[in-house]
Amino acid sequence: MNLNIALLPGDGIGPEVTAQAVKCLQAVEETFNHQFRYEEAPIGAVAIDRFNTPLPKKTLEICKTSDAILLGAIGDLKYDTDPTAKVRPEQGLLELRKELGLFANIRPVNTFSSLLEKSPLKKEIIQNTNFIIYRELTGGIYFGEKKLNEAGTLASDLCEYSEKEISRIAHLAFKAAKNRNGKLCLVDKANVLESSRLWRKVVSKIGESYPEVELSFLFVDNAAMQLILNPGQFDVILTENMFGDILSDEASVIGGSIGLLASSSVGEDNALFEPIHGSYPQAKGKDIANPVAAILSATMLLEHFGLYEEAMSVREAVDKSLRKGIVTSDLDAKSSYGTNQVGDFIADNIVDKDGSFTMNDENIDLGKSTII
Ligand code: IPM
Ligand code: MN
User: Fold this and answer.
1) If both were cysteines, with which of 195, 213, 265, 316 could 102 make a disulfide (CB 3.0 to 4.6 Å apart)?
2) How far apart are the first and last CA of the chain?
3) CB of residue 90 inside a 6 A radius of ligand 1
4) DSSP per position, 321-360
5) Regarding predicted confidence, which is higher, 93 or 359?
6) Residue 275 beta carbon below 6 angstroms from any ligand 1 atom
7) How are beta strands 271-275 and 262-266 bridged, if at all?
8) How far is it, in rounded angstroms, from Cα 269 to Cα 213?
9) pLDDT band per the 50, 70, 90 thresholds, residue 256
10) Is 221 among the residues known to form the active site?
11) 249 carries an active-site annotation
């Protein structure tokens, strides 16, 4: 298969982790005989530094004409600590999502058996975790009218949703639930918010055409609690933009590290793949960031194009790295493996279909690998 992939490494650890994802995609190309073409473009703080805008026109153009977009991370401390900044790196990502109509953000959450002990939560609580968050991505409070009075003493952000915005993502979530364990939970705050009551009404109505899916509702405050009390109860979670942002960071704790969670963002015509983590500026250039979320985002890209065997080979290589302890320090404080080494290990194990690296397994187990 030929694919044109727009590469948007972005800020902080974005370039480092994206490079590992590309290594893995290149290994897939070699192993399975595909041709992926990569076109790199700036977004976020790096784009502001060079072009005074977080989303240069050229970047948007490259994204629009690509088959898929692979993004690293967005954000920089110098903007986080300056509430008066007129341009912000995050605006680049939000504009890109809006311009490309990427209304559904899909964030799978599961545990890896080799990491069950790493989670701050008890093994018995998390071991059956396997759910997907369907987060609405182009509406709600993120995109509603923003106001600040002249004195700078009063501010507001409007949370607005139309029936159409709710129904298009609801259909995707119902279809996903139908193909999984048949359970869909709408997370909202319908006891307080008018917009949430519209979500309930629209989603309930759509639910009638998916009789095989069991629909339930949770208020977001309760959902936040249930996620860590009993994550195994969830199959597909459907929610609005900001609740989904917050709950998915919370959910990342279950697996043991935010550096493990991947996501895809899809619309009618485009698809973007990115880790759910931020730019982690403190780790920038230090070769310590966990590349797994970026690599798993690349597997979601492969799956998006029906390349399931390819995606599986990457997932198996990731599993192997976790099993063998070839992990960054967020997963094992004593580990001395860096971002690059973990990426190399995973990529090498994709190319290697005949087990020629097994001769090194003993060394790897002893923690003195010769191949990395
Ligand atoms: C995410 C991020 C973004 C968001 C930021 C960088 C704008 O936190 O993708 O979850 O809030 O959507
Ligand atoms: Mn977020």
Assistant:
1) 265
2) 30
3) yes
4) HHHTT---TTT-TT----HHHHHHHHHHHHH--S-TTGGG
5) 93
6) no
7) antiparallel
8) 27
9) confident
10) yes
11) yes
